[in-house]
Amino acid sequence: MKKKLILESGEVFYGVGFGCDEDTTGEVVFNTGMTGYQELLTDPSYCDQIVCMTYPLIGNYGINRDDYECIEPSIKGLIVKEICDLPSNFRSQMSLDEFFTKKGLSGISGVDTRRLTRILRTKGVTKGKIVNADAHDSEVIEALKTQPLSTNQIEKVSTKTPFAAPDRGFKVVLMDFGAKLGIIRELSQRNCDITVVSHDTTAEEILMMAPDGIMLSNGPGDPQDIPHAHETVRKLLGKVPIFGICMGHQVIGLACGAKTFKLKFGHRGGNHPVLDLRTQKVAITSQNHGYAIDQESLKNTELEETHIALNDRTNEGVRHKIHPCFSVQYHPEASPGPEDANYLFDEFVEMMKEWKK
């Protein structure tokens, strides 16, 4: 299948399609990870996005049963330089092309991903569409310019009904903005009794569950699209310990009066250095976000900055000055990526212990 990727800004990239033979539209972003494409494809934070992989060969170890971060993928499409049709891995159950076909996803290979990444770095992320090679460029570009992308990504990926991952440890309520299974794994390894609830669960409903702690998950889209979550967190502050990751981090910031803004091309990959301002230690982190907290706006809040990104000096972590609440912009559960930062889950457990005392 001869395909092409057309950007809203007018650039056209030709290639060969894989997966299903359907056109797909989304926000085109790039990821710098060398491995972990299965976790990436099933990460709800990529909802409605078409991801360009900067590493040239994708699919060489296939798809297996163990590395899913969600049951169903929310990604809109994938752009690669070269796709591997014959994966070599003892865990592999199917090829990337087979996975895309089964899940109804569209991808394109043979694209000059270095040139595409340079465009995204220079101009910023943009809307794009994977179409058949005979589609009219001008018509597609006009449609991309006039048709806005949806803004209800969190509603799409959040659980509709509460569910439990029971254990005998601290009771944690996980607010699901698009949670990766990696967060549940890390909490389960620490014997936490987990209840996962929808993004629009109220503070009153959460407190009725008598939790020892609240986890705010990662998720896709703009944090300003869910003001109800800001209000919920505002009511929960001081009532129970809170730990936020990625979208949860931004929600805490907005709940406390800070502001967020859209990054030019975001942070996506498993090789981002982050400085802990308290210890002056650097961790290599896994990241996937297109928005960040405005550091200047933190000065008028009860939050203090705890971490910064060394690539662009943007905010990567905060802690409340009064209440037991902290958050980070990156992913301490990794999946995929380095595990330098998973000690933060231990800090959350210690915070719950102190609070119980």
Concise description?
The active site is at residues 246, 331, 333. The chain is α/β, with parallel strands linked by helices and 357 residues long.
Question: Which key features would you list for this structure?
Answer:
357 residues, alpha/beta, Glucose Oxidase, domain 1, Rossmann fold, 2 domains, ten-stranded mixed sheet, seven-stranded mixed barrel, 19 strands, 24% helix, CPSase_GATase1
Overview of this protein structure:
- The protein is an alpha/beta fold and 357 residues long.
- The chain folds into two domains: 2-149, Carbamoyl-phosphate synthase small subunit, N-terminal domain (Glucose Oxidase, domain 1); 154-356, Class I glutamine amidotransferase (GATase) domain (Rossmann fold, 3-Layer(aba) Sandwich), CATH 3.40.50.880.
- Helices cover 24% and strands 32% of the residues.
- The chain contains ten helices and 19 strands.
- The protein has helices at residues 37-41, 96-103, 113-123, 137-146, 153-157, 181-189, 203-208, 227-236, 247-255, 343-356; strands spanning 2-7, 12-19, 24-31, 49-53, 57-58, 77-79, 82-83, 106-109, 126-132, 163-165, 171-176, 193-198, 213-216, 242-245, 260-276, 281-293, 303-309, 315-320, 325-328.
- The strands form three sheets. A ten-stranded mixed β-sheet has the order 10-12-11-13-14-19-18-17-15-16, with helices on both faces.
- Strand 15 and strand 16 form a beta hairpin.
- Helix 8 crosses helix 9.
- The longest helix has 14 residues, at 343-356.
- The protein is globular.
- It starts with a strand and ends with a helix.
- The model has no long low-confidence stretch (mean pLDDT 96).
